[in-house]
Each structure stands twice: as structure tokens, then as C-alpha cells.
């Protein structure tokens, strides 16, 4: 088969090379961006009088025909065409003839073409992911709004620490996802520059106008240095990094959902719609969705490390190594999109067993810190001593087989006579939560402010019209 770059070769390519070298199997995903870029390029060439208006129209009409052939599944993708850029150009010349078809690639190289196509594609995906993350923020906010008074143990080292509200715990995830949202948007903003017109690596002697292509394609401006433009894959690395951080968050959330759905916790019941059974144990209900999202974190991190490693020692400018940039990004994007959608739906249908959460609060003396704080505040006892007295109260409660929040005054006074009745209020679990009114704390008034921040965040995000 005659290649578009055949001129200097006297021998045909080996079949082995054709298969090894081809990227059309996956870069066909970029067909829309490729054609969009070519249409903008052809239009600019005629505006700059490098080709005639008629030639430009013929090129654009032909490109539109190629687009509909692809979308109607009438386009034949062939390994010998190597990549989407050459496949589209070849078909274009078949349709309109190579006399005019051959002019499209004036002042352009596949190096700036692929940089453009991939960047356009990734930029759009930043917005898609931001939207899906926003849905998650909104779901967590909704569940939180109705669980301000739902008590649950707060943990450190996975040991019972202090009582918090479920709202407070879930809002912590909301804030993580707000940062993820911002990362996708800021990555879009930073990378929204057009590399087309950089040509192979050094620019072009043709009198092109990069501003025209840049604005036609919706970019803020052309990129500044042609060599950087064809060598740069930061936009893809950022996407892989942003998805990796997002998955750190979803994985932690899923880990908790898995724990919470266990017999030991029993804090949640995941809907049957999002649970699976066992082929042998009839009683089983497994949290596969949460486990899969936790598990997929591995491949998402892998894709990031793979591209970082591919890029790290490449001399400027384009090297074929860079063809390895796409599959990992496609994979991470697909993984992120499907995971975000199902996680959101699963959360919406998950039942929170508030009784079990409250019961768990009665184990582990969650309000012990409150007794120490009471001794400091009410009895002017230095915190270190208060800590020691409280420790002894915990030991008394333990030997009476009670949680500290349930012991009577006599027990407490047996440790220190200065303790009076108001200590019992301090030890009450709901009061303990409500006492933490400090900025960002778990008291309702503080969590309500957090919910308000999330609400404003969502409203502002919707104004971005992404
Ligand atoms: N298929 C190539 C890639 O994905 C397109 C760019 C090829 N450029 C070149 N000079 N061989 O990276």
C-alpha cells in the first residue's frame, strides 16, 4: 500500500512494522477533534490566502463527508493507514481528489495535529469529569442535610475517638471532591491554548495566522513556543494526576462503605440494586461496586506512572514514544466516568442505619475528652491532670461494664470529689458533638455552615456553564 510518506522509500513496509507502528486502533477515538482541527486549519489557510476560498470549501465539504461516514459506521479503519490523521486525510483525497486534498497538510505536521487533537479531547473531558464530581458533591450534601443529628463514632487509628455527626463525616468527603472539581477546571484553564500551526517543531515559513485557528477552535490563545507545543503532554499528565487524586478520595470513601456494610459495623445497607450475591453462600450480599472502585484505583495510578515514565527522558521535540500517551488516558477517563456515575447512584440508594451508629457510640468512651475538658473549664484543673483523672474514670466505667457516657455521678466522684452533676451533661454523646462549635467542627451550627459552603460551591459551579 502506498503511504502518504512513501517518497523516499524504495521498499514496502513490513507487515510487522505496520501492526507495531499503527495507532489507529485507539486514536480513532479522536476522529471528531481531528476533523474539527482540519476544518479550522483549511479555513485559516484560505483566510491567509495560502489556498483559495473554493479550495477551502472543497476541503471542508470533503471533511464533513468523512465525518458522517465515520459517524454512520461506513468508514473503514485500516491498520495500514497507521493513524487517524492519515486515515482521514487519505479518505478526504479519495473523495475530493488529491489535487486539492493534498493541500490540507500545508503548514501543518502530524506532530501539531496530534497535539491538537489529543488536547481538545482531554480538555472536553475535564469538563465532563467536573460535572460528574459535582453530582457527587450534591448527593453528599443532600444526605448530610438530613443527618445533622445522626450520631456516629469518629475514629482515629480506626479506634473510637469522639462522637461526630454522619453529616460531618460525609461533608469531609464533599470538601475533597470540591478540590477535585477545582483541579479539573484549573487544568482546563491552564491548558486551553492551541498548538496547531506549530508544524513539525520549528513553526512554518507559510504566512499562517494561528490566532484564527485558535479562536475558531475555542481556545484562549495559541501556544507560545512551537517546540514546547509539540513536545508537551502536561495536559494529559494533569488529567491522569487529577483522576488519581480523585480516586484516592473515592477509594477512601468506598473503603468506609465496605467497612460500614460489614456485620461488625452494620452502619449502612447498600441497596440490592448495587449489591451482588455469592455463587455458593446463599446468605451473602457483597459490596462489589465499592470494592471495584477501590480496586480500579490501582490501574488509574498505573496509567499516571506509565505516562510520567514515558515522558521523563524524551529529548525535544516529538518522539514516537509519545504515541503511548493515549491508551492510559482513555482507560482512566472511562474508569473515572463509569465509577463516578455508579458511586453516585449507589450513595443515593444507600440506607444509613442510624440505630446501629448510635449503639456503636456507646462503646469506647467516646466522650472521655469532654470530661477532661469539663474539668479544665469548670474546675480549673490543668489539662494534664484532667486527662489523668478522666483516665481513671474510664477504668472505673470499664470495671463496671459501662460506657463512660452511662456511668452515674457516684462512680465519677469515687475518682475525684470535685466532679459534680454537670459532668454528666458533658459526657452526654449528643452534647459532646454539639460542644464542638469551633470553626469547622462537628456541632450542627458549624456543619450547617459547611453545607452552605457546598451549596454556594454548587451554585457557582453551575454558573460556569460547563
Ligand atoms: N500516531 C502518532 C501519535 O499518536 C501521530 C503523530 C505522528 N508523528 C510522527 N512524526 N510520526 O503520536
UniProtKB/TrEMBL annotation:
NCBIfam families: argH (TIGR00838)
Enzyme Commission identifier(s): 4.3.2.1
Fumarate lyase N-terminal domain: residues covered: 7-302
Location within or outside the cell: Cytoplasm
Argininosuccinate lyase C-terminal domain span: 366-432
Catalytic EC class: lyase
Keyword Amino-acid biosynthesis listed: yes
Keyword Transferase set for record: no
Single GO BP term: L-arginine biosynthetic process via ornithine
The organism's taxonomic lineage, starting at the top: Bacteria, Pseudomonadati, Campylobacterota, Epsilonproteobacteria, Campylobacterales
PANTHER family documented for this protein: ARGININOSUCCINATE LYASE
Primary localization: cytoplasm
Native source organism of the sequence: Campylobacter geochelonis
Molecular function GO terms recorded: argininosuccinate lyase activity
GO cellular component, one term: cytosol
Domain of life, per lineage: Bacteria
Associated pathway: Amino-acid biosynthesis; L-arginine biosynthesis; L-arginine from L-ornithine and carbamoyl phosphate: step 3/3
InterPro entries: Arg_succ_lyase_C, Argininosuccinate_lyase, Fumarase/histidase_N, Fumarate_lyase_CS, Fumarate_lyase_fam, Fumarate_lyase_N, L-Aspartase-like
Protein name per UniProt: Argininosuccinate lyase
Alphabetical UniProt keywords: Amino-acid biosynthesis, Arginine biosynthesis, Cytoplasm, Lyase
Amino acid at each position: 500500500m502506498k503511504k502518504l510518506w512513501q517518497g523516499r522509500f524504495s521498499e514496502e513496509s513490513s507487515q510487522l512494522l505496520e501492526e507495531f507502528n499503527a495507532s489507529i486502533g485507539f486514536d480513532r477515538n479522536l476522529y471528531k477533534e481531528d476533523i474539527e482541527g482540519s476544518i479550522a486549519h483549511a479555513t485559516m489557510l484560505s483566510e491567509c490566502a495560502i489556498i483559495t476560498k473554493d479550495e477551502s470549501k472543497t476541503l471542508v465539504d470533503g471533511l464533513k463527508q468523512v465525518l458522517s461516514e465515520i459517524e454512520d459506521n461506513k468508514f473503514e479503519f485500516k491498520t495500514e493507514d497507521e493513524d487517524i490523521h492519515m486515515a482521514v486525510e487519505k479518505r478526504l483525497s479519495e473523495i475530493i481528489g488529491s489535487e486539492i486534498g493534498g493541500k490540507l497538510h500545508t503548514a501543518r505536521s502530524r506532530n501539531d495535529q496530534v497535539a491538537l487533537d489529543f488536547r481538545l479531547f482531554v480538555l472536553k473531558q475535564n469538563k465532563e469529569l467536573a460535572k460528574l464530581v459535582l453530582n457527587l458533591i450534591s448527593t453528599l450534601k443532600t444526605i448530610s442535610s438530613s443527618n445533622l443529628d445522626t450520631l456516629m463514632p469518629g475514629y482515629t487509628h480506626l479506634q473510637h475517638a469522639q462522637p461526630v455527626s454522619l453529616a460531618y463525616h460525609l461533608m469531609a468527603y464533599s470538601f475533597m471532591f470540591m478540590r477535585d472539581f477545582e483541579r479539573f477546571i484549573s487544568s482546563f484553564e491552564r491548558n486551553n491554548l492551541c498548538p496547531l500551526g506549530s508544524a513539525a517543531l520549528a513553526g512554518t515559513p507559510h504566512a499562517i495566522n494561528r490566532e484564527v485557528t485558535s479562536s475558531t477552535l475555542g481556545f484562549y490563545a495559541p501556544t507560545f513556543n512551537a517546540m514546547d507545543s509539540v513536545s508537551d503532554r502536561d495536559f494529559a499528565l494533569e488529567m491522569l494526576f487529577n483522576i488519581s487524586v480523585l480516586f484516592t478520595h473515592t477509594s477512601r470513601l468506598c473503603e468506609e462503605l465496605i467497612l460500614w456494610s460489614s456485620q461488625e459495623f452494620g452502619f449502612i445497607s447498600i441497596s440490592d440494586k448495587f449489591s451482588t450475591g455469592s455463587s455458593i453462600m446463599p446468605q451473602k450480599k457483597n459490596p462489589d461496586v465499592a470494592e471495584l472502585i477501590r480496586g480500579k484505583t490501582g490501574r488509574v495510578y498505573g496509567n499516571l506512572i506509565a505516562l510520567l515514565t514515558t515522558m521523563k527522558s524524551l529529548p525535544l521535540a516529538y518522539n514516537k514514544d509519545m504515541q503511548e500517551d493515549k491508551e492510559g488516558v482513555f482507560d482512566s477517563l472511562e474508569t473515572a466516568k463509569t465509577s463516578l456515575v455508579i458511586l453516585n447512584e449507589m450513595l443515593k440508594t444507600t440506607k444509613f442505619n442510624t440505630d446501629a451508629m448510635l449503639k456503636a457510640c456507646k462503646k469506647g468512651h467516646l466522650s472521655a475528652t469532654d470530661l477532661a475538658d469539663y474539668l479544665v473549664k469548670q474546675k480549673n484543673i490543668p489539662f494534664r491532670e484532667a486527662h489523668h483523672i478522666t483516665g481513671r474514670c474510664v477504668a472505673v466505667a470499664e470495671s463496671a461494664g459501662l460506657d463512660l457516657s452511662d456511668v452515674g455521678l457516684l462512680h465519677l466522684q469515687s475518682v475525684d470529689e470535685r466532679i459534680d452533676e454537670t459532668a454528666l451533661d458533658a459526657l452526654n454523646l449528643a452534647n459532646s458533638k454539639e460542644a464542638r462549635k469551633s470553626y469547622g467542627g462537628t456541632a450542627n451550627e458549624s456543619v450547617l455552615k459547611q453545607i452552605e459552603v457546598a451549596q454556594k460551591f454548587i451554585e457557582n459551579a453551575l454558573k460556569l456553564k460547563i
